[in-house]
Amino acid sequence: MSSVSTSPDHEPLAPPWAGEALLARHPRRWVRRVPYVIALGFAAVLIPVTSQVLGMDYHVNGGLAIALGFAQAAPLLLAVVRPLQAWRIVIVADIAGAFVVVQADVAGRPAPWTPMVVVGYLVLCLALSLREPRRTVLYVWLVTVVASVLLSAFRNPVGSDGPDTSVLMIVLSGAVLLLGSLLRERGETRRRLVEQETISETERARRTLLEERTRIARELHDVVAHHMTVISVQADSAPYRLSGVSDEVRGEFESIAASARDSIGEMRRLLKVLRSEDAQDERAPQPGLDKVHQLVEATRRGGVPVELSLPEPGALGESTKVSPAVDLSTYRIVQEALSNVVQHAPGALTRVSLSTGEDHLTVLVVNGPATKPVSRVESGGTGHGLVGMGERVRLVGGTLDVGPLPDGGFRVAARLPMSTPEEMSTPEEGSPSSP
């Protein structure tokens, strides 16, 4: 049985909201109808049997016997949706019927509870215990105990030789209520475990994404800080390298150098926030396209046959104007793809291809199925797999296509712009729109 409640006072197997039936959230339609079928079956049997037994065995007036039969059994249909309200009706009807039975001048008949009352009441107790908290279940049982004891004391001495069902009702109702409560709490425990697992998976994915964003921010900081340093040095040295610089121009260069130094200071303060104390190794210059061949060679030495295809010499040089962010992202994508091959498809033939278009760079890494036993030892890379790739590609305005191949291999294809969207919208130096 399913459960969706999160309130500590409502721990049912099915949701406790008003108007919602037992098993209402089960995915299968026929299972959702089972409680109605069971309740209808008991009501259809108990109503005529109760009326007949009260009329024939206990000599109760026919109209009163039929009324008691309906009042004691018909609320079982309500118990599917609102078991506590159904119990309030049934307990009143059962007590009324028990008063009639204990005062009847009939010897040898069960009293104060008839067998039909016991059966219907136990069914109702099961439905109630599956929906209500322990406090309510205990209250229901205590009312049952008090009613049974009092009705047993009021039995007609003439019919006192019949079986006393008060103790039977107390024991069986307590057992059923306890069983239902245990089933409800077991279902609630399982539901909470599933919720916690779902929350843990969500938090883990979110934490992985945030960690990868932080790593990217640290790397981009290094790239930007390097360029700002170059600007500061060039601005400081320009008056000495260029002849005939006026005082006004010299002041402009000094202002540019000062702004660059201030920006570097802000970047360093940001770096303290982004970097942990044990990330000192990441302060080195970040790799780029010129290091891809070294990465491939290192992977080959690790036992993975890798084929590298690069554009013609110079195609990835200055003429293409690949932005620092794209340069770094390309290296990281290849690094993570090869890391995944080493981890998940050791020994697989892998092809790494870099190609350029008019305004974009395409990165393609394709590997075949594994030819060696898969090792669970983590290898290099960011450790965040496809999450990191997707985040890097998104941040530079590119597209990523990954997925398995029919032969059991895997494909990673990234299309990256030569420049990031921000750089594309910035006027180039020397253009008419450039200040």
TrEMBL record:
Pfam families with a match to the protein in the record: HATPase_c, HisKA_3
Catalytic activity line of the entry: ATP + protein L-histidine = ADP + protein N-phospho-L-histidine
Domain Signal transduction histidine kinase subgroup 3 dimerisation and phosphoacceptor, first and last residues per copy: 212-277
GO molecular function, one term: protein dimerization activity
Domain of life of the organism encoding this protein: Bacteria
Ranges for domain Histidine kinase/HSP90-like ATPase: 330-419
EC number annotated for this UniProt entry: 2.7.13.3
GO CC terms of this entry: membrane
Presence of the UniProt keyword Phosphoprotein in the record: yes
Keywords, in A-Z order: ATP-binding, Kinase, Membrane, Nucleotide-binding, Phosphoprotein, Transferase, Transmembrane, Transmembrane helix, Two-component regulatory system
Residue ranges crossing the lipid bilayer per the database entry: 34-54, 60-79, 86-104, 110-130, 137-154, 166-183
Name this protein carries in UniProt: histidine kinase
Organism phylogeny: Bacteria, Bacillati, Actinomycetota, Actinomycetes, Kitasatosporales
